[in-house]
Amino acid sequence: MIRETATVKEFAPLKSSRLSDAIGEQIRTRLATGDLRPGDKLPSERELANQLNVSRNAVREALRMLEMSGVVKLQKGAKGGAFIGDGNAEVLATGLKDLLNLRGLTIEQLTESRIWLAEIVVRVACERATERDLDLLEANIDEAERCFARGDLDGKLACQIEFHNILARATGNPVLIIIIASTMDLMHHVAQTVGAESNDLALKSRRRFMKYFRARDIAAAVAEMTDHLEQLKARYVELMHERESRMTGVGANSAVQTNVK
């Protein structure tokens, strides 16, 4: 439910060399204390600038930064404005992706942590999954098989990524759901970078997994998922290192050519 501007307490004037940061921090503090909730509409730029005793440019910059963080949603039009968001897992995924690209996070660390997380999710989901969750997982595999049959490897990959998100939602734990969504978004990026698998091994593994999962055989379900992800880990690590080697070689050749000239 959206609470209009009039119901939101005024913001305190600010004095800071980095006003946009201070504005963002005050809004985050309001969220932490419960003064602001998802869906609440913030005052207009002009009103915020007056309340905070800052320029509208500082407010605009702060709102853009909060939008990038997933804290605020900016909407245009007659009913537009700045609204408190409900969280965006893509924000965390983007940060992880930057770490991977900047070498602050290795492919080995990413794939290893994915295996650990998957084990937790499978154990919890195996106990909590409803019939609807089971049906959604089966439907996901059906669609992945249709994609594979028509040669749509990108579609098959998207289904495989979503399979893990469905599993995470079956746990009913919002923390796991967010973490898995962010991790799988990054894994999607990695898979697209090295190229989607052109075989049906993952699909066969999914069918075996579902047999154990439906039977609530946690140990067997975990073992099947872990074995499959270990194989994927080996593939991703090998292909990512090959890609890095090629890129390093191209860079070295360019440098040599430049020096020769």
CATH homologous superfamily grouping of the largest domain: GntR ligand-binding domain-like
Give the number of DSSP strands: 2
Q: Please indicate the count of domains.
A: 2
Low-confidence spans: pLDDT under 50, at least 5 residues?
A: 254-261
Question: What descriptors fit this protein?
Answer:
single chain, 261 residues, mainly alpha, Arc Repressor Mutant, subunit A, Four Helix Bundle (Hemerythrin (Met), subunit A), 2 strands, 3% strand, disordered C terminus
General description of the model:
- The protein is mainly alpha-helical and 261 residues long.
- 72% of the residues lie in helices and 3% in strands.
- The protein has helices spanning 19-33, 45-52, 56-68, 89-101, 107-128, 131-149, 153-171, 174-194, 201-214, 218-260; strands at 72-75, 81-84.
- Helix 1 (19-33) crosses helix 3 (56-68), helix 2 (45-52) crosses helix 3 and helix 6 (131-149) runs antiparallel to helix 7 (153-171).
- The longest helix has 43 residues, at 218-260.
- The model is unreliable at 254-261 (pLDDT under 50).
Brief synopsis:
The protein has 261 residues and is mostly helical. 72% of the residues lie in helices and 3% in strands.
Write the layout of secondary structure elements.
Layout lengths: L18 H15 L11 H8 L3 H13 L3 E4 L5 E4 L4 H13 L5 H22 L2 H19 L3 H19 L2 H21 L6 H14 L3 H43 L1
Antiparallel strand pairs: 1-2
Helix pairs in contact: 1-3, 2-3, 4-8, 5-7, 5-8, 5-10, 6-7, 6-9, 7-8, 8-10, 9-10
